[in-house]
Write a structure and sequence with these properties.
Layout: H1 12-51, E1 58-59, E2 66-67, E3 77-82, H2 93-104, E4 109-113, H3 121-130, E5 138-143, H4 167-170, H5 175-180, H6 183-195, H7 202-221, H8 255-274, E6 279-283, H9 297-308, E7 316-319, H10 338-354, H11 363-373, H12 379-384, H13 406-417, H14 424-442, H15 457-487, E8 503-509, E9 512-520, E10 526-532, E11 537-543, E12 549-553, E13 563-565, H16 574-577
Parallel strand pairs: 3-4, 3-5, 5-6, 6-7
Antiparallel strand pairs: 1-2, 8-9, 9-10, 10-11, 11-12, 12-13
Helix pairs in contact: 2-10, 2-11, 3-8, 6-7, 10-11, 10-15, 11-15, 14-15
Length: 587
């Protein structure tokens, strides 16, 4: 049974009443379009102007919707890339792809980036419709598990991405879009927030108009079922009235929302088919092992089956989940590292070539473009890590641990430079960075990635990026060591070379057998060292006669001892005991 109203023929009087109701609703939409929608579009274009050079720019300086894009040359191929925030980390997938294409055919291709963090399938439908104005030749859709949930509350989502109140898109959206979505009620809340100081009473205000309007609609239609775009029932948690809950990767709880979003995507694909615009679609991988919540494998498989039914509208569809190196993600399960974004872009390059859009070129020639486009220690990377790291003004704001991306690597060191050595936050950051660098420098990848005997073009590309990652991690680790050693001038431990210990004993810590030795200096102070049974020193302590003491730990395993801690608060570093770096720590 449908969750929204179906208006059937119930008599001329009732038809007239329903028509009046619909006219009133259209007037409300027109008012919102002329006020709130216009202001949201201003916000959107301001963000575009400030943050992206390859977006389709909108001009509202005269209060008129005049979206424009420089006309493409007759020989140019314009590619649309549409996704959510997956497109923006790792130096941006579209930037890497544009770079490859520029090397292949200078000026021959333009990648139009219409991705936006926080958008869902209904937003992708709207943006995809808008892209029809831009004379695109091929559409690339970067889909993922998160695109097909229902949406969070309006003030948490990327509402600047909204476009259906724009005159250029409103009358072109399929009727099903309006029946499947409930944004009108959400926008009324946003409108209240913008135009009055009564925002704190928004729930009460909503109750004042929502229920009477709902009752009127039910009376007109003589149907007591819930009005889908107005009523938010308590048992329908997939609507996210309070934002995301703790079941972020348990999308089976929100199946009804996903079904509607799949229909929105099907509408977009059908429209593109009607306009004879070829579509390349990929289901971007999510590394579910990085989630603190257990993934529902049955629902993941259900989603994949549901998504695959849309492949009939595409010229190329690939489900990356399970066969792309999902480990190339950064601070969470979705967003790619620098190397992951490059691999995504290269895979799209191969798909474009396989479908005949790149002309007479071999995959091996494309691989040469890929490998020559970004050397491990490129000038950009060396320039970003130039040894000058002014402390970041907001040291607590950093979330993304990706030392392979040049600007991001520099920001990591700037955040660390703002934290006092020896503090708990300092030790936490160093531990995270030690795990990141060890993961890329030491560990083999699971079978889903390329192996040494994979001689395909794709396998060679993955191997190349793994090697690049290891070189960058080594360089980053060296720069991290130099910076921290310079900051630890007050934590000097006297040299005990040539001295004999006054005490030596075997101890056990966290199940590991260790050697502890104590040296007494002429001043009466003590130096304490901890080492493995093989004699590898990993910790040094300085205990002074005035009662003060500290320890320095070789957290990176490169004999730099850059982690400072209290005597009773240090752990045996993972490199010493050969533990496996756990990439679920946000690598």
């Amino acid at each position: 049974m449908s969750a929204y109203k179906k208006f059937g023929n119930r008599g001329d009087g009732e038809d007239s009443a329903r028509i009046r109701c619909l006219v009133a609703l259209l007037i409300l939409i027109f008012i919102l379009n002329a006020t709130l929608g216009f202001n949201l579009e201003l916000d959107r274009t301001e963000n575009i102007d400030n943050s992206s050079a390859n977006w389709a720019i909108a001009d509202y300086r005269n209060g008129v919707d005049n979206e424009f894009l420089v006309p493409k040359q007759s020989s140019q191929i314009r590619l649309l890339y549409l996704s959510n925030s997956h497109a923006f980390t790792g130096g941006q997938i579209t930037s890497h792809l544009q770079g490859f294409l520029n090397t292949l055919t200078p000026g021959g291709f333009e990648v139009l980036n219409m991705a936006e963090p926080g958008i869902f399938a209904p937003d992708m439908l709207q943006r995809g419709m808008r892209a029809l104005d831009y004379d695109i030749d091929v559409a690339i859709l970067g889909l993922n598990y998160i695109n097909f949930s229902d949406r969070m509350r309006l003030d948490l989502q990327a509402h600047s991405a909204r476009s259906f109140f724009n005159q250029g898109i409103f009358n072109r959206l399929p009727a099903g879009f309006w029946l499947r979505n409930y944004d009108l009620g959400l926008y009324s809340t946003a409108l209240t927030q913008r135009i009055s100081d009564l925002y704190r009473s928004r729930n009460e205000l909503r109750n004042q108009w929502e229920q009477p309007l709902t009752n009127s609609l039910k009376a007109l239609s003589k149907d007591n079922r819930p009005v889908f775009f107005l009523e938010m029932e308590n048992d329908e948690r997939w609507r996210f009235p309070d934002g995301y809950d703790n079941n972020l990767f348990q999308w089976n709880l929100y199946a009804s929302g996903r079904n509607g979003h799949l229909k929105d995507m099907e509408s977009l694909l059908g429209i593109y088919a009607k306009h004879e615009i070829p579509v390349i679609a990929v289901n971007m991988p999510i590394d579910f092992d990085k989630s603190v919540y257990e993934a529902d494998q049955a629902d993941i498989e259900l989603y994949a089956d549901q998504l695959s039914t849309l492949s009939r509208y595409t010229v190329d569809f690939q489900n990356y989940q399970g066969n792309f190196p999902a480990e190339f993600s950064t601070y969470d399960a979705l967003h790619p590292t620098w190397h992951g974004a490059r691999l995504h872009a290269f895979d799209l390059l191969l798909k474009l070539n396989a479908n005949g859009y790149l002309g007479e070129v071999t995959d091996q020639e494309l691989l040469e473009i890929f490998t020559s486009s970004d050397q491990a220690l490129s000038l950009d990377y060396l320039s970003a890590l130039n040894g000058n790291y002014p402390p970041h003004p907001s040291p607590f704001s950093f979330k993304r641990f990706d030392p392979s991306e040049p600007d991001n690597a520099r920001e990591l060191l700037r955040h660390l430079a703002a934290i006092q050595p020896g503090s708990g936050l300092h030790s936490f950051m160093l531990d995270r960075l030690a795990r990141v660098t060890r993961f890329w420098m030491e560990e083999d990848f699971p079978a889903t990635t390329a192996s040494a005997d994979d001689n395909t073009t794709w396998g060679q590309a993955v191997d190349y990026e793994v090697n690049n990652a290891r070189q960058r991690m080594t360089y980053f680790q060296n720069m991290l060591s130099v910076m921290e050693q310079q900051r630890l001038e007050e934590f000097v431990i006297p040299d005990t070379a040539g001295m004999n210990p006054v005490a030596s004993e075997l101890i056990s810590s966290a199940g590991h057998d260790l050697q502890r030795e104590i040296f007494q200096l002429a001043s009466g102070d003590y130096v304490v060292t901890f080492s493995s049974l093989e004699g590898v020193v990993f910790a040094k302590g300085y205990q002074q006669t005035d009662g003060s003491s500290f320890y320095r730990i070789d957290i990176l395993g490169n004999n730099t001892f850059i982690q400072v801690s209290a005597p009773n608060n240090f752990l045996v570093p993972g490199w010493l005991v050969n533990d496996t770096p756990d990439y679920r720590w946000g690598i």
